[in-house]
Amino acid sequence: MINPVKLFKMKGLWEKFVQNHPKFPQFISAVQNNGMNEGTIVEITITTADGKNLSTNIKITESDKEMLAELSELMKEK
């Protein structure tokens, strides 16, 4: 069960994140509009302040799609 207090806190944190990074929600919308089907590969690369690169990738499964859809619905309820 989701703690409503934590959900409310997360809403405020998300709003601040969007203020700081306004292009990120547009990117997420573009991903959703183009579909993230089973077999899609998601790659993430982080560059630390000291220049170190950390990378990983995942191949989306059917259960991943279900979890991402639920998360998306949760974010819409804000």
Describe the fold and architecture.
The structure is a single chain. This protein has 78 residues and is of the alpha+beta class. It has one domain (4-76). It contains 3 helices and 2 strands; from the N terminus they run ααββα.
Provide a short characterization of the protein structure.
The chain is an alpha+beta fold and 78 residues long. It contains 3 helices and 2 strands, in the order ααββα.
List keywords for this structure.
78 residues; alpha+beta
**Shape label:** globular
**Coarse structural class:** alpha+beta
Query: Which residue ranges are poorly predicted, with pLDDT under 50 across at least 5 consecutive positions?
Result: none
Helix-strand topology string: HHEEH
Global Rg? 15 Å
Write the layout of secondary structure elements.
Layout: H1 4-20, H2 23-34, E1 41-47, E2 53-59, H3 62-76
